[in-house]
Design brief:
503 residues, alpha+beta, 4 domains, 6-stranded antiparallel beta sheet, two-stranded parallel sheet, 16 helices, 41% helix, globular
């Protein structure tokens, strides 16, 4: 285990709501959590404050006025409840074994007891750790705002994700593709355990630690499995992680979300969306879209995400094999993905289409629609929202589908599909179906250009758009008339925005 870094002792923040550090991986000992102090930043200030999450966690209403909280959540003060720590993990990156990795720019503050249950707090960008691999351990304002907004946008959409409590900034310089200013995101989740944590101990033959990790995850997060013993427990754990991962992939695909870097060290065992770097919500629909400028082979293209998740699960299964021994039950747990994913995907598409019941031809109806969207690169979010409105209004108007039709170049293709769709939808309860679709198909997503505009303003010291976007993205199915322009088609310049692993 690398030696801990020694830095000048930072002031201590006595905040009563930060109740425990002996939680999560810290409770398992030195093999899992390396005490590491944050590196202070000068002239810290608030950039974005998530008051909805603050309230949900039961934190003080005046949190954003507390200087001690600003210091703590920037890494300028140490929690009074115990040491901050970084964890070690390994993983496969872009399909290749990368060996030991770890929290290179993340520090766990500990955990808090909250109305949401025990929640871990993690600072991203608080300085180097023993796992920084010669990196500076910093995050920049640009990437920090993107993660802050993206994680909350996903939560607003009902997609499993880590959360973001706040972003703090500093004028300190950080070099990426260019010199930028530093920032820190406070991330919140029940656990930040990744597939890569299991891979690390398995690859090093640390079977006792592997078992301790698996038992900890079961006890803390899969209590229904606690009565199972021996190999049966770990097979059940693999099965449940497989099911959660399948559900997460259907959520991503249904809303048009591209993660961009689905390495095994970026996969949560709780089925949470983890690590927002080169992500993107689709504008014009392209199943082969690659959102990560660094992904030269297109490994993590939008359409490949479900298969990559399945591949990553096999890596996790391999890591758990020392605890399972027999291959057949492990394979059966993994193979459950092949049924869970398509069934859940069919369910999501029926909801998006406002269909009741399940008909044999529904999957072909959805697949043919996606091909039509692909052919004309129709804006994915705008299409679904207009379709929802059209279904609702078709109960009263014969022209309701014209705004949807206008999105297509090959209108005859849409017309043929729409005839089939309306026949399947039926004529009764159109308004109810449309209302349900409006609660399923969002009006607002975090488009790249909106994030870019907020970042540009923030670089000039203006943070209002960050907060306004946060409020809209928390309720993406609502109308928000003041921000109607944010629901429109992406401008041409949006296609020139490049995002990479440093984003």
């Amino acid at each position: 285990m690398p030696a801990m870094f020694h830095r000048p002792t930072a002031p201590t923040a006595n905040l009563p709501w930060l109740t425990t550090s002996d939680a999560g991986l810290a409770s398992l000992g030195a093999a899992f959590a390396t005490p590491t102090e944050p590196t202070p930043l000068p002239a810290a200030h608030w950039v974005g404050c998530n008051d909805a999450l603050r309230a949900a966690l039961g934190l003080p209403a005046d949190l954003w006025q507390q200087h001690e909280a600003l210091d703590l959540l920037t890494g300028n003060a140490l929690p009074a409840n115990g040491p901050t720590y970084a964890s070690v993990y390994s993983g496969h990156q872009f399909g290749q074994w990368a060996g030991q990795l770890g929290d290179g720019r993340a520090l766990n503050l500990g955990a808090i007891q909250s109305p949401l249950g025990l929640q871990e707090l993690q600072l991203k960008g608080a300085g180097p750790t023993p796992y920084s691999r010669r990196g500076d351990g910093r995050a920049v304002l640009r990437s920090s705002i993107r993660e802050f907004l993206a994680s909350e946008a996903m939560h607003g959409l009902g997609i499993s994700t880590t959360r973001a409590l706040c972003v703090t900034g500093s004028p300190a310089h950080v070099r990426r593709e260019e010199v930028e200013t530093a920032a820190v995101v406070t991330r919140v989740a029940p656990s930040f355990v990744r597939f890569g944590h299991f891979e690390h101990f398995a690859s090093n033959g640390q079977i006792d630690e592997l078992r301790a990790l698996a038992d900890h995850v079961v006890t803390a997060h899969f209590p229904a499995l606690q009565n199972k013993q021996g190999a049966e427990r770990y097979v059940a754990l693999l099965h449940d992680i497989t099911q959660r991962t399948a559900q997460l992939m259907t959520q991503w695909q249904a809303v048009g979300f591209c993660h961009g870097v689905m390495n095994t060290d970026n996969m949560s065992v709780l089925g949470l969306t983890l690590d927002y770097g080169p992500f993107q919500f689709l504008d014009g629909f392209d199943a082969n879209h690659i959102c990560n400028h660094s992904d030269h082979q297109g490994r993590y293209a939008y359409a490949r995400q479900p298969q990559i998740a399945y591949w990553n699960l096999f890596c996790l299964g391999q890591a758990l094999m020392p605890l399972i021994d027999e291959q057949a039950p492990a394979l059966a747990a993994l193979e459950s993905y092949k049924q869970a994913f398509p069934e859940a995907m069919d369910h999501h598409m029926r909801r998006k289409l406002g269909l009741n019941g399940a008909h044999e031809a529904d999957r072909a109806l959805a697949e043919d629609l996606l091909q039509a969207l692909q052919q004309d690169r129709v804006d994915y979010t705008v299409f679904w929202r207009r379709l929802s409105v059209a279904v609702r209004e078709s109960a009263h108007s014969i022209h309701a589908f014209e705004p949807v039709r206008d999105l297509f170049i090959h209108r005859e293709v849409f017309d043929a599909w729409c005839t089939r769709y309306l026949d399947r939808l039926g004529t009764s309860s159109r308004q109810a179906a449309g209302d349900a679709m409006l609660r399923t198909n969002p009006k607002y997503i975090l488009r790249n250009h909106l994030g870019e505009l907020a970042i540009r303003q923030a670089k000039d010291g203006q943070f209002a758009m960050v907060q306004d976007l946060l409020q809209v993205l928390h309720a993406p199915f609502d109308e928000h008339p003041t921000y109607e322009a944010w629901a429109g088609l992406a401008p041409e310049w949006a296609s020139s925005i490049e995002i990479s692993c440093s984003s």
